[in-house]
Design brief:
11 helices, Lyase 2-enoyl-coa Hydratase, Chain  A, domain 2, globular, 6-stranded mixed β-sheet, single chain, 2 domains, 2-enoyl-CoA Hydratase, Chain A, domain 1, 4-stranded mixed β-sheet, 16% strand, alpha/beta, 263 residues
Length: 263
Amino acid sequence: MNELILMDVRSSVALLTLNRPEKLNALNYAMLDRLMERLDEVETMPDARAVILTGAGERAFSAGGDIHEFSQSIADGPDVALREFVRRGQSVTARIENFPKPVIAAVNGLAYGGGCEITEAAHLAVASQKALFAKPEICIGIPPTFGGTQRLPRLAGRKRALELLLTGDSFSPERAYELGLINAVVPHGQLMPAAFALADRILRHSPLAAARILTAVTRGLNTTIGEGLQIEAEQFARMTTTHDVREGLDVWIEKRSARYSGV
C-alpha cells in the first residue's frame, strides 16, 4: 500500500505531501487519518520547526473529499456522515489551524473543496500560477464541511465568500491572493523554493515566539478585542522567563547572530 502522506524533513522543515496523485489527491478517510498522525509526529520533532504541505503530481494540491467514499457515509444516515466525514475533516483543519509550528500550504494545482479548506486553515500559503481554487460543494447539494463556511468569510469577508460558496465557481490564484486566501503567487517551477524561502524567513527567529504568536492570533480571531488582548498578554508572559527572549534581547543589544534553544 502506498504511503498516503509522504514526509521529508530538510533544513528544519517537515515537507508533508498528499500522495494520491492518480485520484488528484482526493481526501479519503485513510489519508485524513494519516495526515493527523504525521502532524502528531512533527509536533514532537525538535528538528522540524515548520511544516510545508503540498500535493503529489502536477495536477492537484487536493481535489477535495473523496466523493465515492463519503457518499456512502451520507447514504448510511446523518449520524454516520457526521461521525465519519464531517468530524474527521473538521478535526484535520482545526489541527492545522491550531498547530504550534508554522504551517505553509504550497498549492501546486487544483485546490477544490477540502483542498481549499486545508489552504484556508494553514497559517500561510503560496500558490503556483497553475493553481485553481473552488468551493464546489453546492454543486453536489451540500455545504462545505471542513470549515469552509467559517474560515473563508473570516479571510475574504462575508459577501465575497458567499459569492464563491453559493456559485461553486472556480477562481484563479490571483483572485485567491486578492481575497487573502494565499500570501503569494509564483511561477510553477518556483513553488517549492518559494515555500522553503518563506519558511527560512520564519526560522531565523525564536520557535517559542512563533508558537506564541500563532496561539495569540488563532485564539484571538474568535474573541472580542478585549479578550484577544488578554490572550496576547498571556502569551507574552509565557515568553518572559525563556532563554529565547533573553537571547533575542542580547542579539539586539550586542548586534550578533541569534542562537535560539527553543526553551
